[in-house]
Amino acid sequence: MTSFPSGPAYAPALLTIDLDALAWNWRFLADKAAPAKSAAVVKANGYGLGTAPVVTTLASAGCRLFFTAHLSEAIKVREALPDPDIEIGVLNGLMTGEEQAYPEHNLFPVLNDLSQVDRWAAFCAAHGPRAAAVQLDSGMTRVGLPAGEAEALAADPGRIAGFECRYLMSHMACADEPDHPLNARQRDRFAAMVPRIPHSHAMLAASSATFLGPAWHFDYIRPGVALYGGRPNTQAPNPMRQVITLEGKILQIQDVDAPQTVGYGAGHQVEKPGRIATIGVGYADGYLRSLSNKATAVLHGVTVPLVGRVSMDLITFDITAVPDAKVGDAMELIGPSHTIDDLADQAGTIGYEILTSLGARYARRYVGVPQ
Ligand SMILES: *Cc1c(COP(=O)(O)O)cnc(C)c1O
Asked: What radius of gyration do the chain's Cα atoms show?
């Protein structure tokens, strides 16, 4: 057990985060990508699992390159990882006025358009050269130099001569669908620019594209969700280890019979005698309201259905099939028998949203000691 802070023992739900599984997942992806190296994406509070425990675990597993979305997140990563040899980049780009924060906290920006490139070059001219990444938009239409700007940079590489372009990168739009035609198109567009824009290391693949094959690996992969147990591919079994378990305590059990209804809006109609168990977790904890009448959980090894609507702080399950269940018993809301992707499918969303919505009211227990 580590010393990372956890919530109070009396919290109605317990979120257990297995740091050994997290480290295993990073090594698995790093092995898969070898001889390419593996970075780690730890944005959004380490995909909801806690920045400090996540990054210290990954650093002990061997990771030396981290990415966040925002500058504020990167500063938190740097506080947890003061080792100056560990590199931390900010994916969302260099906003005007933020330049000085990068040397101050030993971070590097990802430059997402030509104005950012020119601004970093000017900053380096004034304050000394510092490495940055340059991101090309190869088909996402989101952040990164659009094709025309990438051409302009390739035609005039002097624009980045004043600093080291340490990472030349791009991001895939459809890599979780291995047969999508955009996968090869984006890789080809990126590969065509690799020899034309000076840089030290090229990187394209996040979790999903790591599994498309070595042609997507370049020098570094940059996985996020798979580290945390998310499935990298919608069409194959998930090779990753589950990292989180979420258990809710039964607060109350009621015997019910027709014509009773359960919850707001009388959202569930009782049809025969049975038992309803209430758990103290709700949409305020990121247990999404779209799970109303859709989710399942596991109680004493039996899969039981959520009935009625998800309320802010409570959910109800039909536990008629588990006659020996009693108040205080733990129900597995997420875990090895019911993964983040299983729950995401029931909610009509993706595992990423389940992870990054995990509530602040859960007691958190970190198990597994970073070596
Ligand atoms: C979030 C993100 C990643 C990680 O993606 P996963 O699908 O979670 O592996 C990698 N690169 C960029 C640019 C991202 O925004």
From this structure: 23
Which pLDDT value is given to residue 3? 52
Nearest to 33 by CA among 260, 252, 214: 214
Rounded distance, CA 323 to CA 341, Å?
28
Closest CA to 344 of 294, 309, 280: 294
Q: Which of 68, 171, 183 best tests ligand 1's pocket when mutated (most atoms within 8 Å of CB)? A: 171
Residue nearest to atom 6 of ligand 1 (CA): 224
**Cβ-contact 159, 153 below 8 angstroms:** yes
> Which one from 43, 76, 220, 362 is the annotated catalytic residue?
43
* CA 285 from centroid of its chain's CA atoms: 17
Residues 343, 321: Cα–Cα separation, whole Å: 20
Please state the atom number of ligand 1 nearest to the C-alpha of residue 43.
1
Percent of the chain with pLDDT over 70: 97
Name 286's Cβ contacts closer than 8 Å, sequence gap at least 6: 48, 354, 357, 358, 359
pLDDT in tens, 283-325: 999 999 999 999 999 999 999 999 999 999 999 999 999 999 9
- Which of these ranges, 234-238, 328-332, 333-337, has the smallest mean pLDDT? 234-238
Evaluate: CB of 114 within 6 angstroms of ligand 1.
no
| pTM of this structure | 0.96
User: Is the Cβ atom of 41 under 6 angstroms away from ligand 1?
Assistant: yes
